[in-house]
Amino acid sequence: MAVTVKELREVLMYDPGNIKPGGTDMQKYNVNESIQNQKEYCATKGYSQVAPRDGICGNCGLQIYSVVYHEPNNFQKSFGMQGWVTGVSTEESKMLVIGCPHCRHSFIRLAPA
Ligand SMILES: [Zn+2]
Predict the structure, then answer these.
(1) Phi/psi at 93 (nearest 5 deg)?
(2) Ligand 1 centre from 92 Cα, in Å?
(3) What pLDDT was estimated at residue 17?
(4) How far apart are the CA of 80 and the centre of ligand 1, in A?
(5) What's the whole-number mean pLDDT along residues 21-47?
(6) pLDDT of 39-76, one tens digit each?
(7) DSSP state, residue 92
């Protein structure tokens, strides 16, 4: 799905690189509600929806609107690093979702000017 540069400048975008500390994430996740939110947001604003309609990332196969916990590896643990979670929450699904929160794959392909 193509999106214009103008659209990119205007919209409030969800940051696919957004990670949240594990265990302290109080955000709500609901796949069906988030799919609907994203669809309605794009329709209302007249933006091209770039996120997959079913929420399944074509790159990693994970559900973008579900929360995934990431366990730190031993190297990260040796520095005291805690686990973290990724996922587009129901609140975040009210912004233009441009990439997968889990693998950071971009859903955007720039349209020719
Ligand atoms: Zn992905």
Answers:
(1) -75, -5
(2) 16
(3) 62
(4) 27
(5) 86
(6) 999 999 888 899 999 999 999 999 999 988 888 899 98
(7) G
Measure the CA–CA gap between 77 and 102, rounded to whole angstroms.
20
| Per-residue model confidence (pLDDT) at position 62 | 95
Cα 68 to ligand 1 centre (Å) = 11
* Cβ count within 10 A of residue 63: 21
Q: What is the pLDDT of residues 81-101, one digit of tens each?
A: 888 888 999 989 999 999 999
Q: How far apart are CA 96 and CA 31, in angstroms?
A: 16
Domain chopping of the chain, boundaries = 2-110
Q: How far apart are CA 96 and CA 45, in angstroms?
A: 10
Q: Distance from the CA of 62 to the center of ligand 1, in angstroms?
A: 6
Per the DSSP assignment, residues forming a β-bridge with 3 are 110
Residue 77: count other Cβ atoms within 10 Å of its Cβ.
12
Reading the block at residue 4, the tokens are: 């214009």
Contacts for 83 with CB less than 8 Å, ≥ 6 apart: 21, 22, 23, 69, 70, 71, 72
- Cα–Cα distance, 54 to 61 (Å, whole number): 11
